[in-house]
Amino acid sequence: MKTSLPASLLKIFQKTNNRAQAGIAILSDKVQLVKLSPAEKGYKCHFFTEVELPAEDQLPQVLARLIREHDLAAAKTNIVIPANRIQSTQIESSELPEGDVQTALPWKVKELINIPPQDMVCDYIDMPLQPTGQGAKTQVLATSRGYLEAIINPFHEANAEIGAITTEQFAYAKLQTTEDAAQLVFIQNKKADAVLLIVKNQEICFARKIRNSAVILEMTPEQLEMGGSDSIAIEIQRSIDYFESQLKQPPIKNALLSMLGDNTETLITALNQVLPVRTKLITIDDVEVPPGLDIRYMAALGAAVYLEPRVTSKQEVVNEN
Question: Which site from 43, 61, 82, 91 is most exposed, i.e. has the minimal number of CB atoms within 10 Å?
Answer without folding.
Answer: 61
